[in-house]
Amino acid sequence: MFVTQGAHDRPGHCRRAGRPTHHPRPAPLHRGRNHQLACGWISALPRGQLYRACTVARRARHRRSCAPGRSRREHSQTGSGHPKKNTKPSGNVMTEPIVLVATDPRGVATVTLNRPEVGNAYNAAMLDALIQGLTRLAADPAVRCVVIRGAGKHFQAGADIRWLGEVAGYPPAENYAASIATTRAMQLLNEFPKPTIALVHGACFGGGIGLVCCVDVAFATPDSQFGITEIRVGVAPTPISTHMVNAIGLRHTRRYALTGERFDAREAERIGLVHEVVTADMMEAKLQAVLDAIFLGSPTAIETTKRSFLGANDLLLDERAVAMLAHEGWTQRHSPDGHEGTAAFREKRRPAWYKPPAVAAT
């Protein structure tokens, strides 16, 4: 679930997303020269196995995470089957939404990833909320720009390892649907028709790097730490692979995706992952300067320019590519190494495949 706060809303008033009373289904953003499908709208999933898989997964997630006696409304607002830490249960108290969306009078929508207790690691609920939120913002003519932030100490720490472990044990259709959701969320952000900005601080790993690769402008604070670390837990970063190559090039992607090395904000700037390193006390001023520059441009000219960049350079994923990335992702996650990697992470030990360096003879 996510909550939107619009410029025309009453103070403190929240609208539950995903249930518009009169909004039509949004039209596709644009089409690339080599495919004929809308660019990643969750409502445009193809019929057949793909649609059935997603439906099965949504129902199964609900069954698993709704505790006995817990209402459907309470479940949708927490986004998982586990209450937040330090949260006292109450019949009338609801936890915060897993994704916050607030739009100011100027048309700047701020999307805040809101699982600070786990570094904003994503799970199925966060992916669903992100897809719903971005879809709605793309269709809203009052929205001119989207800013993505992370609540708490970190921007985004990648996938929730506990969730990955659960997903690895799902039946194939549900496992595949989880990979589809991750791939769709990244695709939708990459092909979003309006300018997008990421403000990075703290940890930015795995899927967090994918989000940064998919936005138009990215800034990071000096304390930011980055890493494409999926291989260290036995999984593959397939949902973000094409976006990493597009953003930082194949050469840098090969190094960091195949080694899992961590790197700092200066290295992220050097390889083109972020545009500039900005101190925390200057971040808001930098953001406002960029927003002002964006508002000097024509909205339709900006959308046309962005569409031409993506379409002319074959940066739009068609359904064949989406299916391939999702298939590669779930099969690796379901593999023996996938199970061993997530188990080793949870148990805080080296995975079985690790080979320590040989001790030099004296």
TrEMBL record:
GO terms for biological process: isoprenoid catabolic process. CDD domains: crotonase-like. One of its GO terms (molecular function) is catalytic activity. InterPro entries: ClpP/crotonase-like_dom_sf, Enoyl-CoA_hydra/iso, Enoyl-CoA_hydra_C, Enoyl-CoA_Hydratase/Isomerase. Residues 1-32, 61-92 are annotated as: Disordered. Residues 13-32, 61-73 have a biased composition (Basic residues). This is Enoyl-CoA hydratase. It comes from Rhodopila globiformis.
